[in-house]
Fold this sequence. Notes:
By secondary structure, the protein is α+β, with helices and mostly antiparallel strands. It has one domain (22-131). It is 21% helix and 25% strand. Strands 4, 5, 6, 7 and 8 form a five-stranded antiparallel beta sheet that branches. The chain has a three-stranded antiparallel beta sheet with strand order 1-2-3, with no helix packed on it. Strand 7 (96-102) and strand 8 (105-108) form a beta hairpin. The protein is globular and about 40 Å long.
Amino acid sequence: xxxxxxxxxxxxxxxxxxxxxxxxxxxxxxxxxxxxxxxxxxxxxxxxxxxxxxxxxxxxxxxxxxxxxxxxxxxxxxxxxxxxxxxxxxxxxxxxxxxxxxxxxxxxxxxxxxxxxxxxxxxxxxxxxxxxxx
Length: 134
């Protein structure tokens, strides 16, 4: 019985370490860190962590993989107007990058610049799935 309890405690500890693994973002330098490791994103500062749909959190988790989306600096209104966006898109960015966390380590996706990402509006879970291949 004692061995089962020790094994269960060790397994719970292992599971919790990945569940609670979180990134830290320095918005002014667009630098992501976790533990003693850090990398600078290929985005224009200031950066923001994009909320998930319905403001459920800062990441979406698929099994052992957590995916964060980071947006770059808000686009200038003139740039938004060229793309037929509206005034309500103010504060949104035209650049973003994924941070993929697996086993308490993270990797960065390539920078994306094909769509509008609004940090406070939130993104659907399907948007995050594109990063599962990294």
